[in-house]
Amino acid sequence: xxxxxxxxxxxxxxxxxxxxxxxxxxxxxxxxxxxxxxxxxxxxxxxxxxxxxxxxxxxxxxxxxxxxxxxxxxxxxxxxxxxxxxxxxxxxxxxxxxxxxxxxxxxxxxxxxxxxxxxxxxxxxxxxxxxxxxxxxxxxxxxxxxxxxxxxxxxxxxxxxxxxxxxxxxxxxxxxxxxxxxxxxxxxxxxxxxxxxxxxxxxxxxxxxxxxxxxxxxxxxxxxxxxxxxxxxxxxxxxxxxxxxxxxxxxxxxxxxxxxxxxxxxxxxxxxxxxxxxxxxxxxxxxxxxxxxxxxxxxxxxxxxxxxxxxxxxxxxxxxxxxxxxxxxxxxxxxxxxxxxxxxxxxxxxxxxxxxxxxxxxxxxxxxxxxxxxxxxxxxxxxxxxxxxxxxxxxxxxxxxxxxxxxxxxxxxxxxxxxxxxxxxxxxxxxxxxxxxxxxxxxxxxxxxxxxxxxxxxxxxxxxxxxxxxxxxxxxxxxxxxxxxxxxxxxxxxxxxxxxxxxxxxxxxxxxxxxxxxxxxxxxxxxxxxxxxxxxxxxxxxxxxxxxxxxxxxxxxxxxxxxxxxxxxxxxxxxxxxxxxxxxxxxxxxxxxxxxxxxxxxxxxxxxxxxxxxxxxxxxxxxxxxxxxxxxxxxxxxxxxxxxxxxxxxxxxxxxxxxxxxxxxxxxxxxxxxxxxxxxxxxxxxxxxxxxxx
Amino acid sequence: xxxxxxxxxxxxxxxxxxxxxxxxxxxxxxxxxxxxxxxxxxxxxxxxxxxxxxxxxxxxxxxxxxxxxxxxxxxxxxxxxxxxxxxxxxxxxxxxxxxxxxxxxxxxxxxxxxxxxxxxxxxxxxxxxxxxxxxxxxxxxxxxxxx
Lengths: 694, 147
Description:
The structure holds 2 protein chains of 2 kinds.
Chain A: H1 4-30, H2 35-55, H3 58-75, H4 83-104, H5 114-124, H6 130-142, H7 159-170, E1 174-182, H8 189-203, E2 204-210, H9 213-217, E3 224-231, H10 235-243, E4 248-255, H11 258-262, H12 274-280, H13 283-308, H14 320-347, H15 350-373, E5 375-377, H16 379-382, H17 385-396, E6 400-405, E7 410-412, H18 413-434, H19 438-443, E8 450-459, E9 462-469, H20 476-485, H21 491-495, H22 499-504, H23 526-536, E10 540-546, E11 550-558, E12 563-571, E13 574-579, E14 583-590, E15 595-597, E16 600-605, E17 608-614, H24 615-618, E18 631-639, E19 642-648, E20 650-658, E21 672-677, E22 683-687, H25 689-692
Parallel strand pairs in A: 6-8, 13-22, 17-19
Antiparallel strand pairs in A: 1-3, 1-4, 2-3, 5-7, 8-9, 9-11, 10-11, 12-13, 12-20, 14-18, 15-16, 16-17, 18-19, 21-22
Helix pairs in contact in A: 1-2, 1-4, 2-3, 2-13, 3-4, 3-5, 4-5, 5-6, 14-15, 17-18, 18-23
Chain B: H1 3-7, E1 8-16, E2 19-24, E3 28-33, E4 47-53, E5 56-62, H2 63-66, E6 79-85, E7 88-94, E8 96-104, E9 108-109, E10 123-129, E11 132-137, H3 139-143
Parallel strand pairs in B: 2-11, 5-7
Antiparallel strand pairs in B: 1-2, 1-8, 3-6, 4-5, 6-7, 9-10, 10-11
């Protein structure tokens, strides 16, 4: 299909437009009087409508169109922005997003949005929104079998059709809008359509059909279709005639009113309202309002265009698959570079050394570029949160202000893909458990509005993401009590826990402190999943919290997952790699430094008691002969706050390696997180320090 | 598929101790000379470790160990047969890989009831060919421990 080649572009651009819609809507919520923002949203919606209509996604185009009408009314100052109106517009954007996602997943982007459409119409005609639901319900009862969609007219008339309808009514014809619903079990839909049209055409003229006649003939509609019809027959007669056709569930005939055809070009509501007539009297006012709006928009767009100017650099879209292939090829090169380096070191040939060195440098640059090419700003994850927090705070009746900092921070795509869900969880947690209700906040002398700050920044080879709230903080006593009752810690060991360790108990599995389990944040299965996901990404999470003041959840993530820096160590003949990210430092200790504490060998490391782990024992390394050295090489590693000393035979050095999995056959090997291929072509195993420290 | 192809099964024949075994060619990805095997701690005894197979880390199973045949010293003829099964890639250490032959499907018999060695669980059938006896392996069972 020809369309297919544009489909991807369509989906990408639709997403962008929807994103800009919701961003601007949130902005609008803060400054309800800034019509420049409305213009921005209007433009996005308009483009989206045009694109989806071109691509043949009618539901999408239709809903956008309705939304656009409302925006247009706001823009022309016919309607004032209220939270209720924004709710409906947000709802529409949500629906639009779902439709686009459906299309992206290969669906047809169809969705029943009649309720939202009805609400939009209400807004447009200046009626209260709440009534819609009732009306729809009542109407649905009246129409008995007919579904909700029957009530909502989908007919859009162009100028020609309007003229025809208008002229014929003037000439004494009746203009009707007929909505026909077939029975659910109707087998020959096209045949029934044909019979209905046959009757209609004998008695008058069909001006317009929705869906179009071609589509009706191909049975490309659900159970319901509408026609605009002019006739001399009365509605009752028409109804009884059409009902004679079998397998028809319901016929709804409504007269098309003159006022409707004369007034505003996009109007299509059937029910006459006082407001609508009023509207038709104010076209002059409209023009003035438009001018005003135009003036305002020029001032505000000039500021927003400044914001967007940096995005004007030339870019091309490259499929992620290709970047993955590039990455794989580059990994092969990294392995070969390692090999070349070790050969060069053995041969010790001047020119070879020089070349290898130069190549290594170029490779380093290349690596930077390849890695940064796969980096995308964390914005892509963050930008769905404002809307989420907005919805959550409304549901929970809390006032929450979400602040996002450092959305431009870049992360590897693989990390981005994985980090979304844990962040959703943590933010929900902060909103649900962290921020208190406005009453409590007021009672505690805090401002009613709670703050949640989402912050991302680079530091070294890591990206930090922090979620900070000024809520209730963690009640450590409550946490401890719960942890003891759930058997996560024992009473004795609880005494020795630091504040931070107690905070982190909420990350343990089977833990939930909320007195009432809500459907917003987890059921105690949540936060431990967050922790596991983050650790599987090679990152870590920690919690700082002061009761009554707030909490900070801070996540540390590696920039990339596939190439990591390690320290190579040797035990007997075997080489193991320890990720530099876990290493604090290395040291050589004397036999006499080793102390014994309850069957556990420990050392005193800078004033701290650090347990020793003999990798030789853990990994059951076969010894040809017992060695009894006076000195031991120790790698001090950490997991969160805990330290441990890994005893090895000797250090080899630091190296960049490509992380490889052990394949599908060997899974869940204790304390081994993967493998890598060394310069000499041999495989070395990567030590999983997290597993060594319980 | 024509009738001729249906009647034959192409197999790789390899030797372990004094017996000959066969694996369908469709499961075999390649035959490698013995190379450095990195031991992986805390795995089953028959898992020798992993090798670098052209950039892919591939686990290695010692079939002698798996079949409880006394271990011999590795020799010049020792080979690693790389097999694939259900998206897994695994190498088998064998004494030697001798042959690729077509065996007529109708010469394959069900495993005789009395074999009396530990390997009986891994056998899917035997094929008699002139004066050779080929033991067809049940790869699934070789790979997956049923302890």
